[in-house]
Amino acid sequence: MIVDRQGRRFRNLRISLTSACNYACTYCVPNGKRLVAAQDELSAEAMARGVAYLIEAAGIERLRITGGEPLVSPKLEAFMTAVGQMGLADISLTTNGQLLARKLPLLVNAGIRRINVSLDTLDPVAFRNIARGGDLPTVLDGMDQARAAGMKVKVNMVPLRGQNLDQVMPLLDYCLERGYELRFIELMRMGHLASDSNAFLQQFVSLQQLLSLIGDRYEYLQADAPVDATAVRYEIPGQGFFGVIANESVPFCRTCSRLRLSSTGWLHGCLSSSNRHYVGDLLDKPRHEALPALQRLLVKALGDKQEVAFSGGATIMKIIGG
Questions:
Q1: What is the C-alpha separation between 100 and 25, in angstroms, rounded?
Q2: Which phi and psi angles does 90 have, rounded to 5°?
Q3: Is 4 within the bounds of a domain?
Q4: Out of 10, 18, 21, 219, which residue is the most buried by the measure of CB atoms under 10 Å away?
Q5: How far apart are CA 142 and CA 130, in angstroms?
Q6: Residue 44: predicted pLDDT
């Protein structure tokens, strides 16, 4: 077991199945161009082998499949079939929901029971302005179908001053009515926002600002959450829950248990570090050769974690998964 001096270890793996995405959200891609799959992305078999090796080398217990947009990847079915047989405590998926209804039978058959849908507004015009792709009714229909299929649905919203702040309450009401748990995500100093502090500050909405908006309509209580949770969770008695991933306001670095594997074979121990560690070449090696080398890289990746708070990173989030 690899543990640092703060007692942190890797329990949760987030794997970016592809860097390709059918959206180009303003807070992720500054130039409006959709990201395409890299030429050197790992195969489904190699990625699955990477998960298996990381389970053994790091003690990974939970897996989240991300992107880019994982549902656009032709590797999705083969990868999920493989990891579904590895005995993980939990496998979940984050999607923008555009292809959710179409891919739902595949997800259900693969044993996915939890999904997070990235949705920043219920206004169709604002939706197109932020996502720069897709359409809102298709996403909402996919969420309804997922709920009807027995999936637990969470919604991820990034509140942005000047773009969708007026949608905080409509989206919260919508989620409470349907039994979805809404997660507000504070804007992160990632990619182009890491070097443009003015753009970041002009759009940033804090935990306290969100709670002030919500408190004008609802009474809420802070709810329990796992010790390594990223979200501060709240209950609106009799109606449901919401949470805030308050990366800036309430940093969670001290308890972070997340490890990320990119679609091109790079391990990222911390979003706030430019360090990355290539493991793609290890995934073609037999277990007895791969594991010792992988463990050495994991020690370095764990050492990349911030001790107190996130300080920003130049990496584009879509490349390494949310």
A1: 18
A2: -160, 135
A3: no
A4: 18
A5: 19
A6: 97
pLDDT at 96: 96
Which residues are CB-contacts of 243 (< 8 A; sequence separation ≥ 6)? 181, 182, 183, 184, 225, 231, 232, 233, 234
Q: Which CATH number fits the domain that encloses residue 279?
A: 3.20.20.70
For residue 7, what are the CA distances in angstroms to 1, 224, 257, 297, 303?
A: 11, 21, 10, 18, 12
- What was the pLDDT predicted at 281? 96
Q: How many domains does one find in the chain?
A: 1
User: In this structure, are strands 266-268 and 258-261 parallel, antiparallel, or unpaired?
Assistant: antiparallel
**Structural domain of 104:** 12-319
């490349």: which residue's tokens?
319
Q: Supply 38's token pair.
A: 């890299």
Q: What is the pLDDT of residues 94-128, one digit of tens each?
A: 999 999 999 999 999 999 999 999 999 999 998 99
Taking Cα atoms as reference points, which of 297, 312, 223 lies closest to residue 266?
297
Instruction: Tell me, yes or no, whether 6 lies in a domain.
Output: no
Q: Does 44 map to a domain?
A: yes
Residues of the chain below pLDDT 70: 32-34, 190-197, 308-322
pTM for this predicted structure = 0.90
Residue 64 has φ and ψ, to the nearest 5°, of -120, 130
Q: Please enumerate in sequence order all residues whose Cβ is within 8 A of that of 98, keeping only pairs 6 or more positions apart, or say none.
A: 22, 23, 69, 71, 133, 134, 135, 138, 139, 142
2 assigned to some structural domain: no
